[in-house]
Amino acid sequence: MATRIRLQRHGKKGKPFFHLVAADSRAKRDGKFIEKLGTYNPTANPAIIDIDFERTLNWVQTGAEMSDTAKAILSYKGVLFKNHLIKGVAKGALTMEQVEEKFNAWLAAKEAKIEGKKDGLVKNAEQERVARLKAEEAANAAKAAELAAKNAPVVEEEVVAEEAAEESTEETANDEAQEEGAAE
Fold it and tell me: Which segment of 10-14, 104-108, 110-114, 146-150 scores lowest on mean pLDDT?
């Protein structure tokens, strides 16, 4: 029986969620499996990967094949690196203390990189929010100026119309006065 470490899809349409499992290579993708090793949520940024490190390392050491995606995930989490270091112990190149030291140094560097990415995402989100606010303020100012421009000529037209009405009433009053003076 060939054992394979692969992903089982769960979740709903458009929102995938995967279980990392050790299964018989002949089993269906979402079918029967031997052991659930962890979960993978690709929709989060950065992706959330939660695995049982020791059990996964055990499966890798016993020769389980990996799908391409599972291999990438295990490499990202350091399972393949630790397996590589342990093989070095078997060959006599390293001791277990050196393996743990190298792996912990690698893990610390990886965590720092992930935290840097999270901080960068938060900073970018804040910059985008500030940029959106500035753009909205500029748009509101433009709309206000446009409304002021539309309302200003209307006021001037009303003033001109009122002045014209006053002049015509004055002219009419003057004409009536002249007609009365001529009639006398």
Answer: 146-150
